[in-house]
Amino acid sequence: MTTPIIFDTDPGIDDAQAIAIALVHPEIELLGLTTTYGNVDIDTATANALLLSELAEQEIPVAQGAAAPLVKAKHPAPAHIHGGNGLGDIELPEVQGKALSSSAAEFLVEQVNARPGDITLVAVGPLGNLAAALQLDPSITGKVKQVVIMGGSIREGGNVTPVAEANMFNDPHAAARVLTAGWPLTLVGLDATHRCVLSPQDMDRIAAGQGRLGKVLADSYGFYSDFYRQFLGIDGCCPHDSCALAWLMRPDLFTTARGHLTVVTEGFAEGQTVFAPEGRPFLDERWSATPSVEVCLDAQGARVVEWIVDVLS
Ligand SMILES: [Ca+2]
């Protein structure tokens, strides 16, 4: 039994690690990569998605998507974290392939309709592509098997503002639509990903196990972990996006709860994910008016990292 997924991504160094997992895990069937701006601009995101598949010697369809947020102005890409090229400014081989002519949203809608009930969408960047797919064909909410989102924060606080996680902050209007669309959804946010630290020794094992792809992962990791050391005092990095796949394949390593999410779209708290646990009464019903979803509250960090390294070595 394999798990068919479409991986929506803004690669990005931790995205690249997760894409590698999706490419090599024997029980994951990677139907396609859909790209969005976020860690990098959209053209760079698409080039990196093509390149990573080529380094793994696989031909994976890549569909290009959102170049900017739905409503708010776009912030500059965080080159100090991911490098100007999204992969730590290391020298990269030439990309051979080309993106599909269909957009990310069209690709998502077409694939989900072709295999109703089968496909899991895993999204690890700003959520414009999923929002556009919902607008194109609202019926996909009843046809996806599952939606797994890396983003948001329940009790952990934010990483780009005191309350907002980067993917939610980058396009809060898209996030608000996607998280409240009424499909089977799990949010894997900072409460889980901050429990996981990929150490330099872990990356050595991955580099040894993945050939040319492993070298790109290891070299870009060096740039990313410099940021973690300098700004956060951590020797290693949080493999945020890989945690979404870890949850999908090993949900036993995570603590979850059900409830209702509201995404703040404007003002000081823009991008904050507000969680109202199921069954808990509040002052009025508006916090619990959105559809029920699942959120991660914690993860067994060391075991998640062990899973990542095992898959990639
Ligand atoms: Ca990402």
From TrEMBL:
InterPro entries assigned: Inosine/uridine_hydrolase_dom (IPR001910), IUNH (IPR023186), Ribo_hydro-like (IPR036452)
Domain Inosine/uridine-preferring nucleoside hydrolase span(s) in chain numbering: 5-304
Source organism, top-level taxon: Bacteria
Entries under Pfam families matching the protein: IU_nuc_hydro
Keyword annotations from UniProtKB, A to Z: Glycosidase, Hydrolase
Assigned GO CC terms: cytosol
One function term, GO molecular function aspect: purine nucleosidase activity
GO terms, biological process: purine nucleoside catabolic process
Protein name: Inosine-uridine nucleoside N-ribohydrolase
Protein source organism: Modicisalibacter ilicicola DSM 19980
